[in-house]
């Protein structure tokens, strides 16, 4: 959707986020501005280890450099509008961006650590019929720094209790592969040992199936965990749930996944939301097992959250277990995703849809 004139002016006046720069890019900027390149590591330390909120706090830098950074970059790019906390410890943040748009970020607590689910776009153009994120369509892509800032903001909240973000999933609002370059830069910044130093094996990126970008991502040969939003065992059901399947056909998607596995040696995760009476019967499980036979994979069954703007209903528990049992019978590695935030606006995009109706109308 085209920006209004006011939005274009605001966006043009907005300084780029310092979090957008990878370490080598910051070194280049410093050299271009007659500063020593080693200052980049000092700045990264202030940003990602000390997690300061203003350039003035970077006390081992000269005042001239601090002023130059302040003149050229923004540091605090997200404003917390709402912070919802669930009884299970899940925290959902609604952040406002510099142009007034809003995004969601979720902190999920697990036995193995704290995981952050980040957003890559304001809205989404993919149009999955079960998802609140796509309501109102795509407004704009996030720059890499706006994605990085989500993790920093959550880490700053955890700093108060001496906790740490231990893993990141790129499964929030938007299609990550539709904002590929920013997503890739984000991955490199949070993975860098001078950045947030989150191990590649503790980062997961998910796509609805933009096939050309799957091939491209495979060729990056990163050790990032890779997930596919599959949600259906055949073309007919997938096209009903996910219109992207009409552009990128299921057989072609499976070919790209096999290429990824062969290229990287890593397994993929299939995200499979269970929708009552649509894709959750035993015969669907049988069909799914046949589709992914001999594919190095794991299936993550997701009991869907109810979204008021959508018509889908939850699958009964006994049916979920029957689906799981059927896959296991065929030797498929499968788990049922643990629910998070059941007592808050847990579904992706749901808080934004409720609080920012003008954005999702």
Automatic annotation (TrEMBL):
<feature type="binding site">
    <location>
        <begin position="229"/>
        <end position="231"/>
    </location>
    <ligand>
        <name>S-adenosyl-L-methionine</name>
    </ligand>
</feature>
<dbReference type="GO" id="GO:0070475">
    <property type="term" value="P:rRNA base methylation"/>
</dbReference>
<feature type="binding site">
    <location>
        <position position="124"/>
    </location>
    <ligand>
        <name>[4Fe-4S] cluster</name>
    </ligand>
</feature>
<feature type="binding site">
    <location>
        <position position="131"/>
    </location>
    <ligand>
        <name>[4Fe-4S] cluster</name>
    </ligand>
</feature>
<dbReference type="GO" id="GO:0000049">
    <property type="term" value="F:tRNA binding"/>
</dbReference>
<feature type="active site" description="S-methylcysteine intermediate">
    <location>
        <position position="348"/>
    </location>
</feature>
<feature type="binding site">
    <location>
        <position position="128"/>
    </location>
    <ligand>
        <name>[4Fe-4S] cluster</name>
    </ligand>
</feature>
<dbReference type="GO" id="GO:0070040">
    <property type="term" value="F:rRNA (adenine(2503)-C2-)-methyltransferase activity"/>
</dbReference>
<keyword id="KW-0411">Iron-sulfur</keyword>
<keyword id="KW-0698">rRNA processing</keyword>
<keyword id="KW-0004">4Fe-4S</keyword>
<feature type="binding site">
    <location>
        <position position="305"/>
    </location>
    <ligand>
        <name>S-adenosyl-L-methionine</name>
    </ligand>
</feature>
<comment type="similarity">
    <text>Belongs to the radical SAM superfamily. RlmN family.</text>
</comment>
<keyword id="KW-0808">Transferase</keyword>
<keyword id="KW-0963">Cytoplasm</keyword>
<dbReference type="InterPro" id="IPR027492">
    <property type="entry name" value="RNA_MTrfase_RlmN"/>
</dbReference>
<dbReference type="InterPro" id="IPR040072">
    <property type="entry name" value="Methyltransferase_A"/>
</dbReference>
<dbReference type="GO" id="GO:0046872">
    <property type="term" value="F:metal ion binding"/>
</dbReference>
<dbReference type="Pfam" id="PF04055">
    <property type="entry name" value="Radical_SAM"/>
</dbReference>
<dbReference type="InterPro" id="IPR007197">
    <property type="entry name" value="rSAM"/>
</dbReference>
<dbReference type="InterPro" id="IPR058240">
    <property type="entry name" value="rSAM_sf"/>
</dbReference>
<feature type="binding site">
    <location>
        <position position="206"/>
    </location>
    <ligand>
        <name>S-adenosyl-L-methionine</name>
    </ligand>
</feature>
<feature type="domain" description="Radical SAM core">
    <location>
        <begin position="110"/>
        <end position="343"/>
    </location>
</feature>
<keyword id="KW-0479">Metal-binding</keyword>
<keyword id="KW-0408">Iron</keyword>
<keyword id="KW-0819">tRNA processing</keyword>
<keyword id="KW-0489">Methyltransferase</keyword>
<dbReference type="InterPro" id="IPR013785">
    <property type="entry name" value="Aldolase_TIM"/>
</dbReference>
<comment type="function">
    <text>Specifically methylates position 2 of adenine 2503 in 23S rRNA and position 2 of adenine 37 in tRNAs.</text>
</comment>
<dbReference type="GO" id="GO:0030488">
    <property type="term" value="P:tRNA methylation"/>
</dbReference>
<feature type="binding site">
    <location>
        <begin position="174"/>
        <end position="175"/>
    </location>
    <ligand>
        <name>S-adenosyl-L-methionine</name>
    </ligand>
</feature>
<dbReference type="GO" id="GO:0005737">
    <property type="term" value="C:cytoplasm"/>
</dbReference>
<dbReference type="InterPro" id="IPR048641">
    <property type="entry name" value="RlmN_N"/>
</dbReference>
<dbReference type="GO" id="GO:0051539">
    <property type="term" value="F:4 iron, 4 sulfur cluster binding"/>
</dbReference>
<keyword id="KW-0949">S-adenosyl-L-methionine</keyword>
<dbReference type="GO" id="GO:0019843">
    <property type="term" value="F:rRNA binding"/>
</dbReference>
<keyword id="KW-1015">Disulfide bond</keyword>
<protein>
    <recommendedName>
        <fullName>Probable dual-specificity RNA methyltransferase RlmN</fullName>
        <ecNumber>2.1.1.192</ecNumber>
    </recommendedName>
</protein>
<dbReference type="GO" id="GO:0002935">
    <property type="term" value="F:tRNA (adenine(37)-C2)-methyltransferase activity"/>
</dbReference>
<feature type="active site" description="Proton acceptor">
    <location>
        <position position="104"/>
    </location>
</feature>
<dbReference type="InterPro" id="IPR004383">
    <property type="entry name" value="rRNA_lsu_MTrfase_RlmN/Cfr"/>
</dbReference>
<dbReference type="Pfam" id="PF21016">
    <property type="entry name" value="RlmN_N"/>
</dbReference>
